[in-house]
């Protein structure tokens, strides 16, 4: 497995930290040359250093996935550096300007925040595919992974922008799989559950009881880590998944397969047994 992506080139958006960071490291460790596209230049450079220090090959590119020219340049830089493009992992989601921009209902969300959210959640994936597919076609095929979420199946109250965007990712993935299957370009999505990335790890340090409550929501009784998603990405990009396309793989510790009535009772019982638990939000 160490060389199963040998000779291939991958672009990972949001590849500096979290799921994207772990995915960049995983693909590089298995032989891919990796372009880390991110607007966090310091973190992107640190991940490049981490990859190259381990013997891998990586470059960083400053990219805002909501801007068409940035996305086109991102793809061009990868092709100019290494001569081809085989894998595109569309993971980036910016909350610059505050997470409040994705909160609200159809009544309360502003048109400006709606447009911004759909740009970075949906339009960015269209742009990535638009610019990547011609290069994949030249090398006889490729793999595109779109990051969806458990939120594409299960809706949270007052989260119209995010829920609409993530649901759209599933539909776009299926459509792209149909459109580009004849070119041997496979398009799949992944739906992560609660993934404790670097930022969330810092938050949970001050509230381990709250994290334990979250973990109890999952049939596996644990939340996820970025490497859980990176492993799923590597599988879907590999020849082991050569007959899989248009699929949304839920990597969620079983969160979305539970009967909600029993799930609610379990959480209520947990709260009674752990009265000192402090919940976020």
Polypeptide structure, described:
The chain has 281 residues and is of the alpha/beta class. The protein has one domain: Rossmann fold (3-Layer(aba) Sandwich). 47% of the residues lie in helices and 14% in strands. It has helices at residues 18-29, 41-53, 68-82, 111-138, 160-180, 198-205, 208-215, 226-237, 260-273, and strands spanning 9-13, 33-38, 57-62, 87-90, 142-147, 185-192, 248-251. Strands 3-2-1-4-5-6-7 form a seven-stranded parallel beta sheet, sandwiched between helices. The longest helix has 28 residues, at 111-138.
Topology overview:
Layout: E1 9-13, H1 18-29, E2 33-38, H2 41-53, E3 57-62, H3 68-82, E4 87-90, H4 111-138, E5 142-147, H5 160-180, E6 185-192, H6 198-205, H7 208-215, H8 226-237, E7 248-251, H9 260-273
Parallel strand pairs: 1-2, 1-4, 2-3, 4-5, 5-6, 6-7
Helix pairs in contact: 1-2, 1-8, 3-4, 4-5
Q: What descriptive keywords fit this protein?
A:
alpha/beta, globular, 7-stranded parallel sheet, Rossmann fold, 281 residues
């Amino acid at each position: 497995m160490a060389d199963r992506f040998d000779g291939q080139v991958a672009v990972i958006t949001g590849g500096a930290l979290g799921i994207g960071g772990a995915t960049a490291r995983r693909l590089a460790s298995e032989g891919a040359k990796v372009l880390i596209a991110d607007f966090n230049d310091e973190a992107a450079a640190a991940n490049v250093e981490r990859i190259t220090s381990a013997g891998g090959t990586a470059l960083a590119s400053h990219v805002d996935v909501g801007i068409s020219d940035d996305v086109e340049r991102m793809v061009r830089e990868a092709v100019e550096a290494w001569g081809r493009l085989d894998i595109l992992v569309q993971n980036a989601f910016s909350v610059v300007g505050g997470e409040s921009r994705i909160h609200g209902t159809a009544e309360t969300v502003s048109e400006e925040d709606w447009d911004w959210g759909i740009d970075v959640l949906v339009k960015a994936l269209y742009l990535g595919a638009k610019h990547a597919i011609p290069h994949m076609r030249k090398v006889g095929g490729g793999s595109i992974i779109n990051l969806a979420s458990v939120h594409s199946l299960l809706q949270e109250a007052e989260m119209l922008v995010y829920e609409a965007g993530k649901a759209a990712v599933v539909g776009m993935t299926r459509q792209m799989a149909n459109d580009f299957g004849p070119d041997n370009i496979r398009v799949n999505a992944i739906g992560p559950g609660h993934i404790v990335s670097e930022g969330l790890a810092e938050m949970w340090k001050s509230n381990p009881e709250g994290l334990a409550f979250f973990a109890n929501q999952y049939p596996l009784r644990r939340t996820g880590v970025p490497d859980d998603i990176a492993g799923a990405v590597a599988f879907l990009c590999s020849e082991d998944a050569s007959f899989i396309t248009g699929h949304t793989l839920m990597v969620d510790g079983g969160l979305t397969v539970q009967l909600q009535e029993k799930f609610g009772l379990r959480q209520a019982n947990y709260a009674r047994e752990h009265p000192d638990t402090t919940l976020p939000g």
